[in-house]
């Protein structure tokens, strides 16, 4: 918004190009985060250690809650470089709300209860769903079928809320290995940024591929690339052995970000394709616990979740091995499935 005002004063057409906005937003988020993550890390709360995780004690005492820094920088990036858009601005505020809630948990002397966090996640997910329905102008399209669209408001609200809640919690559960959650989220949001800018935000390409054109897709891609840049800066310090941790402030805010951007594409099913490894790593454990706790159904008895803990304990994978192999799996899935979805459709 501020950028649009300044570029209007300068009156140079080049400053109106979305590609220029993406570049400036990207480098702003990367450079500012690179500086402040190092400068402010000493003021962050200290990690309590993850008692139920394999090698969870290794994180004890490290600065955590870094998400409050890099997602705040992202907020300023959106305010500076993105044109005003109700659904984008409100969604960014909800990312910040999820971040702040997570940060309060990070700085608490004892970890907050599961139901307390689940309830807040549900509230912010419902708020995100309402924002997209009221201001997002989003129609759900189904993979592999060119004419199947879902426009019923109640069904949309339920689907949106479910995707956002699942995304927040699976991302949170995957944050237990240096670099893992950051690199998987980076890949997911980076893929979405490319989709929004080059395909869904391009009227000619979207028409050719028989997908709905998103008029503000390029504007959303600026925000998505800003998150990618923020994660690059974070991973600079979180690469094994990590110096800082994103904490719940980062994982909950990023989980909401993945969900809301996926929903903006109009295809919530993309979550299971673009964030497959995040879902399997963290989400399958949630399903396992829910079935056992509420229905007394036992599944995956011999598999420990999050899956990265199973790989550590049973296969002696190092943090670097886990990160690289999970990354390769997600790259292979994303590359193949996205081509299949758009071409078959």
UniProtKB/TrEMBL annotation:
PROSITE patterns: MRAY_2. Its cofactor is Mg(2+). The keyword Membrane applies. The chain crosses the membrane at residues 14-36, 64-82, 88-106, 118-136, 148-168, 180-200, 220-237, 322-342. Its EC number is 2.7.8.13. The lineage of its organism: Bacteria, Pseudomonadati, Spirochaetota, Spirochaetia, Spirochaetales. Mg(2+) binds at residues 172, 248. This is Phospho-N-acetylmuramoyl-pentapeptide-transferase. The keyword Amino-acid biosynthesis does not apply.
């Amino acid at each position: 918004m501020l950028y649009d005002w300044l570029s209007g004063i300068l009156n140079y057409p080049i400053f109106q190009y979305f590609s220029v906005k993406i570049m400036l937003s990207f480098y702003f988020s990367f450079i500012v985060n690179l500086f402040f993550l190092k400068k402010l890390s000493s003021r962050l709360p200290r990690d309590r250690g993850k008692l139920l995780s394999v090698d969870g004690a290794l994180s004890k005492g490290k600065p955590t809650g870094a998400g409050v820094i890099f997602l705040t920088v992202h907020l300023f990036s959106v305010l500076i470089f993105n044109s005003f858009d109700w659904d984008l601005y409100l969604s960014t505020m909800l990312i910040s709300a999820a971040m702040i809630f997570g940060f309060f948990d990070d700085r608490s002397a004892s970890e907050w209860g599961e139901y307390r966090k689940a309830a807040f996640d549900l509230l912010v997910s419902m708020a995100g769903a309402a924002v997209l329905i009221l201001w997002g102008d989003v129609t759900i399209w189904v993979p592999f079928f060119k004419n199947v669209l879902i426009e019923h408001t109640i069904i949309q609200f339920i689907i949106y809320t479910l995707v956002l809640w699942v995304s927040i919690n699976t991302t949170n559960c995957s944050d237990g290995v240096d670099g893992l959650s950051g690199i998987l989220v980076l890949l997911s949001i980076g893929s979405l940024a490319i989709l929004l800018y080059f395909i869904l935000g391009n009227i000619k390409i979207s028409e050719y591929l028989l997908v709905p054109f998103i008029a503000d897709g390029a504007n959303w891609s600026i925000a998505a690339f800003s998150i990618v840049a923020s994660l690059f800066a974070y991973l600079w310090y979180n690469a094994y052995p990590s110096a800082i941790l994103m904490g719940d402030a980062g994982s909950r805010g990023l989980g909401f970000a993945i969900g809301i951007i996926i929903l903006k594409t109009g295809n919530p099913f993309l979550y299971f394709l673009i964030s497959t490894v995040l879902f399997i790593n963290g989400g399958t454990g949630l399903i396992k616990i829910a079935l056992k706790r509420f229905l007394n159904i036992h599944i995956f008895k011999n598999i420990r979740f999050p899956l990265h803990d199973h790989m550590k304990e049973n296969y002696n994978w190092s943090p670097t091995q886990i990160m690289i192999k999970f990354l390769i799996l997600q790259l292979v899935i994303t590359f193949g499935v996205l081509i299949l979805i758009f071409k078959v459709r």
